[in-house]
Amino acid sequence: MILRVTAIKLFRGLLTLLLVVTFVFVVLRLTGDPAEQLLPDDVDPLVLEHYRSVWGLDRPMHEQYLRYLASLARGDLGVSFRNALPASELIALRIPKTLELGITTFLVAVGLGVPLGIFAALHRDAWLDRFTMSFAVLGFSLPNFFLGIVLILGFSLHARWLPSSGHGTWQHMVMPVLTLATSFAGAIARFTRSSMLDVLGRDYLRTARSQGATRRRQVLLHALPNAAIPIVTIVGFSIGGMIGGAVVTENVFAWPGVGRLLTNAVADRDLAVVQAIVMLVAATMVTANLLVDIAYAWLDPRVRVGRGEGGR
Amino acid sequence: MIAEPTVGRLASRTVRSWTADATTAPADAVLEVADLVLEIDTDRGPIRPVCGVSLTVPAGSTLGLVGESGCGKTLTCLAAADLLPSNVRAVRGEIRLLDMRRALDTGARCADDDRRRLAWRRRLAMVFQNPLAALNPVRTVGWQVMEAFRVRTGASRRAARIEALGLLERVGIPDPRSRMRAYPHELSGGMSQRVMIAMALAGNPRLLIADEATTALDVTVQAQIVDLMRELQAELDTAVLFVTHDLGLVAEVADTVAVMYAGTVVETGPTRVVFDRPAHPYTAGLLRCAPRLDRDVVRLDPIDGSVPAPTAERQGCAFAPRCPRASARCTTSAVSRQARGSAHVVACHHPMPT
User: Fold this and answer.
1) How do B100-103 and B88-97 pair as beta strands?
2) Are strands B337-339 and B256-261 parallel, antiparallel or unpaired?
3) DSSP-based three-state secondary structure for B85
4) Secondary structure in 3-state letters for B238-268
5) Which residues of B touch A213 (CB under 8 A)?
6) Is residue B27's pLDDT more than 60?
7) H/E stretch holding B63
8) Residue B102: enclosing H or E segment and its boundaries?
9) What share of chain A is helix, strand, coil (3-state, %, to 5)?
10) B139, A229: Cβ pair inside 8 Å?
11) Contact (Cβ atoms closer than 8 angstroms) between residue A120 and residue A128
12) How far is B308 from chain A (nearest CA, A)?
């Protein structure tokens, strides 16, 4: 039963991927001829023609599409128009750097957002709550590029504490992580607060209180496992926003990750690379959603499938 | 039902608790609430849903607290259990629970420090009206019973597991070993109330407060739960404060009864005495409008009018506007409590003739 449900979810995920790939494939080819974009304006028409036939751009679109799918099925993501390297190789080089940024951001955002949200909920309507939540809203509303530039102005140009761009030391990490994590943490804090407030008002918390459980025990053992259910959802969904934010942030701080590769590839009309990255992003989102579903079943016994009446 | 002599012994206690200067608690009263006044701020000024409640739950017996919904029964219980919601303010009053004492007349909601507060809560246990909502949906039944036991006693997991199994068995849950792993949504209402009772009994509290504990259940299940509670009460010698609006239930389970109306206790006494010879016109009215099978009554006899809003600082008797026996005096001068036979006390200017 559980296996069947998981299989259905996996199948749906693959279908989503196929749709994304198809969409990107069509849109990229409708918006202009990559051969013309890549080659100089005054190039010989014969060279243009040759270039097109080499890359298969002269074939009808459906044929190009089928060839593309066939190569995808073989695990071949195509070759970069720009430097003839396999797209997969280009991306694979960048993935660790983006993961480094992404995972650190994720940990910082969750590690900051969840405790702040709980804290605000426990001090509901006190100035501590208002103060925390004002910051959360501010963090949530600041666009990444703006916050990034402000940080560079403050910490690099003015105070000269941190390097403004590049990758390598922990100092390089501080500002990109801060930029990305701020909005993420703000969203998580707000969600945690409202979810926690909801749970704190429930009868079963009164039960815990009536038994004489300590405040700490009430929050950590009785309330949090319930409040975690909606928090996990928002965290899962935020991963999409984080990927978008990562593209911007990597560009602001010249972080050599996938996001920066994507912007360059789009500017160059490097079809294979763009397609591969979009697919990677889509796959990440699908995986994140799948993980949210799994976490859900793990956290909430009421949605656990395959569990019969009577708790067998 | 507890034997007559016990009720007789309670008599003096109950009367004493009425007096305003009850400074020494009777040795065997488990819970004593004296002159409790609770206030809630609303848009139209403060209201007093509880204004001057006094009651005593003697050790090892059951006090039935009856009254219509909104008369302040639940708030009185919550105050006794130190679970008042944050919008409710205690104006005055004193609550004694076993060896502990809390004065509520400071205006502060709870002046006690956290340790005392937890110690207070651990001395009593509550069973709530809606068992499904009162159980944590993401924790197993076993975890919750174990948790209740561990919080009250500080026992180890292993000891708590053994205790939890015993408790579940004792409250009549079939196959407790596998039920330990069940989640609340997998249980019926009656089963979840049994689990709540098991949780309440964990750690052997001396006082059990059952706030409309059977109201949300089907009638047949209700009877089972009431039987269970009576059994357990006799077996464990726990004092019970049984709150309900159901007179039939009170007659069945309570040794003494306190009748509440609009935030005050209007009559209290041994259950049989109050039911047979009610002294307060409100009690008499309540009993008249309860359907009975043993009499040929064509129509039920409702009490005219409705419960007054608890807004104004009250002069005289709250029941006066609806009372068939009211006189001019009832609306102007405060009612004093008068003893009427042993342990039977009524707050009325014109009690029913004996």
Assistant:
1) antiparallel
2) unpaired
3) coil
4) CEEEEEECCHHHHHHHCCEEEEEECCEEEEE
5) 118, 147, 151
6) no
7) strand B62-66
8) strand B100-103
9) 75, 0, 20
10) no
11) yes
12) 29
Residue type, B180: M
- Are the beta carbons of B134 and A209 separated by less than 8 Å? no
Q: Residue A121's pLDDT is what?
A: 93
What are the boundaries of each domain within chain B?
5-138+183-292+309-347
Instruction: Show the DSSP H helices in chain B as ranges.
Output: 4-18, 73-80, 114-123, 131-134, 141-153, 157-170, 176-179, 189-201, 219-236, 247-253, 271-276, 281-288, 328-332
Judge contact between B151 and B122, C-beta under 8 A.
Answer: yes
Alpha-carbon gap, residue A136 to A140, rounded angstroms: 6
Architecture of domain B5-138+183-292+309-347: 3-Layer(aba) Sandwich (3.40)
A291-311: per-residue pLDDT in tens? 888 888 888 888 775 444 433
Cβ-defined contact of B138 to A300 (cutoff 8 Å): yes
Q: What is the ipTM of this complex?
A: 0.80
Classify strands B264-270 and B345-347 as parallel, antiparallel or unpaired.
antiparallel
Cβ proximity of A139 and A186 under 8 Å: yes
- pTM of the complete model: 0.79
Tokens 């299940």, residue?
B221
Query: Any idea what the Cα angle at residue A6 is, between residues A4 and A9, rounded to 5°?
Result: 110
Tokens of A166: 């590049």
Cβ separation B134–A226 shorter than 8 A: no
Angle at the Cα of B276 from the Cα atoms of B270 and B277, rounded to 5 degrees: 85
Going by the DSSP 8-state scheme, the letter that residue B93 receives in this structure is: E
- Closest residue by Cα to residue B218 from B188, B194, B198, B240: B188
Task: Locate A108 and state its tokens.
Answer: 């910082």
